[in-house]
Specification:
With about 475 residues, this protein is an alpha/beta fold. It has 15 helices and 21 strands. The protein has two domains: about 270 residues, Aldehyde Dehydrogenase, Chain A, domain 1, CATH 3.40.605.10; about 190 residues, 3-Layer(aba) Sandwich (Aldehyde Dehydrogenase, Chain A, domain 2), CATH 3.40.309.10. Strand 13, helix 9 and strand 14 form a beta-alpha-beta unit. Bound molecules: nicotinamide-adenine-dinucleotide (NAD). The site of nicotinamide-adenine-dinucleotide (NAD) has 30 residues, from helix 7 and helix 8.
Length: about 475
């Protein structure tokens, strides 16, 4: 597949004519080319968006709803193509792409299609006068997303931006370009006017940077690494752009003695190793109360060792490859670091050598460490792979202390049957999201995002619609 830019409703090469390889990480083989865009391509996309903005922002919500809803329907009609493209780009099991990610991308469009119909503004009356607040589309906005849940996260930004009446310049990760490219065709078929959504492909430091710097792009919604988020805010901040940053995590998972043991065991294995540990919401610091620590540790090791690592295309595969050779090396370096810091590797800790088609793929075994304190780098830095640590605690106070011993603050999970304790901890733990006796249980209306190094702002529901609009207050005096 030759992945091109989608500008003004047409697929085009980058102005520079350059491109680079798209690699399937499960096989290590090249599967296509990706255009290598830069500032000139951003300029073209901005021109297209400027032409489209007036009509799109003034379109009746009912009509905007119909187009966005149609996009959602067409995503599901093409779910097999999309799931295949996702899996070939990322090495994740096809079942994950088919059953979770592509349906969720469709839900994102369906959900925000209805938001276009229902979004409303406030009014505030005073004696003799009334204020009403217009919530107007910002104009042209930039949406930049990562590789781990490609179309899922891409659509999570684009759908509310469009629903609110903006024109969008969007950039998927250079490691997962294909489903974003296919989305262009789908939008065209759904009747999205040319120029309303422009999709640019290429490297973050080139085309991503040019999107962030462009003075006509008034807001940046970014999901990705904390360091990239810092770079973006250093550029966009002084330009007074609106910024939403969804960044990394080092999420605590707190398991109490009184948890529903079998359910907790199953879910902790899932929250540790789903998508090869490459979900920002995965737990990576597993804190277990002393009374069940040894039993839980042994059972979790056994669970990790029975996860079926395999060719992502095969039925029954639960665990595929990491996203790239570079990322595999980065995660392997963290495993070395954990050993140097005195960690005991309980299972995994090495590459998984595959046979056949996947023999050159970037596979790593699910890995568990213990014996590392909260202050070490292994427990402070985001690894973003299938590597977790176990820490033992005695008291609730100690659990809170360990859970909060992080510069990140994205998501926490609590596993206990004591309702009062669950509520106490939920308010004490410094994260944007707390799940109690569940993980990744999502209602798209709820605020989504983190604190501290995990980001600024919230996505989801009205939070996203507010982010993608400017509030203008109008005050009328009538006496
Ligand atoms: P990344 O920061 O390397 O890249 C993310 C996106 O930003 C890509 O499209 C990339 O091309 C682009 N980019 C890179 N440098 C840029 C620059 N200077 N200017 C503009 N754009 C630039 O992140 P990644 O490796 O793709 O994704 C993994 C990270 O994303 C992890 O840290 C993970 O925790 C985080 N993440 C966070 C959430 C969340 O909701 N908080 C969700 C998923 C992933």
């Amino acid at each position: 597949m030759h992945v091109k830019n989608f500008i003004s409703g047409h697929y085009v090469d980058a102005v520079s004519g350059k491109y680079f390889d798209n690699i399937n990480p499960a096989t290590g083989q090249k599967i296509g080319n990706i255009v290598r865009s830069g500032p000139e391509d951003v300029e073209e996309a901005v021109k297209a968006a400027q032409i489209a903005f007036r009509d799109w922002s003034q379109m009746k919500p009912e009509n905007r709803f119909k187009i966005l809803h149609k996009i959602s329907v067409l995503i599901m009609e093409r779910d097999e193509d999309l799931a295949l493209a996702e899996t070939q780009d990322t090495g994740k099991p096809l079942s994950l792409s088919s059953n979770i990610e592509i349906p969720r991308a469709a839900s994102n469009f369906r959900f925000f299609a209805t938001a276009a119909l229902q979004f409303a503004s406030e009014s505030h009356s005073m004696p003799g006068s009334i204020n009403y607040t217009l919530r107007q589309a910002i104009g042209i906005v930039g949406c930049i997303s990562p590789w781990n849940l490609p179309l899922y996260l891409f659509s999570w930004k684009i759908a509310p931006a469009l629903a609110a009446g903006n024109c969008v310049i969007a950039k998927p990760s250079e490691l997962s370009p294909s489903t974003a490219a296919l989305l262009g065709e789908i939008c065209k078929e759904a009747g999205l006017p040319d120029g309303v959504l422009n999709i640019l492909q290429g490297y973050g430091s080139e085309v991503g940077d040019a999107i962030v710097r462009h003075s006509s792009i008034k807001a940046i919604s970014f999901t990705g690494g904390t360091n990239t988020g810092k770079t973006i805010s250093q550029i966009a901040g002084p330009m007074f752009k609106k910024i939403s940053l969804e960044l990394g995590g080092k999420n605590p998972c707190v398991v109490f003695d009184d948890c529903d043991y079998q359910k907790t065991l199953r879910e902790v294995s899932r929250l540790s190793f789903s998508n090869q540990g490459q979900i920002c919401l995965c737990g990576s610091r597993i804190l277990v109360q002393a009374g069940i620590y040894d039993r839980f540790k042994n059972d979790l090791i056994q669970k990790a060792e029975t996860i079926k690592i395999g060719d992502p295309m095969e039925d029954g595969t639960q665990f595929g490859s990491l996203i790239s050779e570079d990322h595999l090396n980065k995660v392997m370096n963290f495993i070395d670091l954990a050993k140097k810091e005195g960690g005991i590797c309980l299972t995994g800790g090495e590459r998984k050598q595959m046979d056949g088609r996947c023999k050159n793929g970037y596979f790593l075994k699910p890995t568990i460490f213990e014996g590392l304190g909260p202050e070490c780098r292994t427990n402070m830095e985001e690894i973003f792979g299938p590597v977790i640590t176990l820490q033992k605690f005695e008291t609730e106070a100690e659990a809170i202390h360990l859970a909060n011993a992080s510069d990140y603050g994205l998501a926490a999970t609590l596993w206990t049957q004591d309702l009062s304790r669950a509520h106490r901890l939920a308010s004490e733990i410094n994260t944007g999201i707390v799940w109690i006796n569940c993980w990744l249980n999502r209602d798209l209306r709820t605020p989504f995002g983190g604190v501290n190094q995990s980001g600024v702002g919230r996505e989801g529901g009205w939070e996203a619609m507010r982010f993608f609009t400017e509030a203008k207050n109008v005050c009328i005096q009538f006496d």
